[in-house]
Amino acid sequence: MTRHAYADTSLGRLLLVADGDSVTGLYFEDHHHPPVVSDLGTEVTLGNDELLAAAADELCEYLAGSRQDFSVPLRADGDAFSTRVWKRLRAIPYGSTVTYGELARELGNPHLSQRVGQAVGQNPLCVLIPCHRVMGSDGSLTGYAGGLDRKRTLLALEEPPADQTDRLF
Fold first, then answer.
1. Annotated catalytic residue: which of 76, 92, 116, 131?
2. Closest-CA residue to 53 (of 7, 110, 121, 99)
3. Residue, of 91 and 167, whose pLDDT is higher
């Protein structure tokens, strides 16, 4: 059964979607690529859905700095290429970043950076599948479905303490 609930977090109100025993969506209120309303299923409260409550708890732990990995079952539905990209995103370690070009090369074709960018932008499980860890070729912050301020916040959260103390800002 497909269902959804809302969780209030330090990043704002998040929409969590689940189907069966997997979390299938996480979206910001002003998400650049919002889900189709008919795909959300029934609205439930977090207190009445063990899976969505666990996902919300893990997100809050992550945002508080006490969690680096997520254990709730995830399922991202998409075409074969997007699925490969999302699988690779899940392998980016906490506190690390890669570029779109690096991902394209790892996936077998350095000319697919733009296609990789499209797949990253369509990630249905923001934060849970860490698309915020992907940067522009020069290391700059580039598009993020939740906005660049949120991307900056997530990257700062994951920044090693030694790097934070060396920062001038």
1. 131
2. 7
3. 91
Two structure tokens written together for 127: 């934060």
What letter represents residue 138's amino acid?
A: D
C-alpha angle 117/119/120, rounded to 5°?
65
Higher pLDDT, 4 or 32: 4
My answer on whether 48 and 111 are in the same domain is no
Is residue 41 within 8 Å of 1, Cβ to Cβ? yes
Q: What is the reported pLDDT for 169?
A: 45
Ordered DSSP codes for 122-157: T-SBTTTS-GGGEE-TTS-----TT-HHHHHHHHHH
Is 131 among the residues known to form the active site? yes
DSSP-derived letter for residue 40 is: S
In a domain, 150, yes or no: yes
pLDDT tens-place string over residues 141-166: 888 888 899 999 999 999 976 555 55
- Measured CA to CA, the distance from residue 148 to residue 141 in angstroms comes to 7
Band the pLDDT of 56: cuts 50, 70, 90.
very high
Domain extent for 87 = 80-159
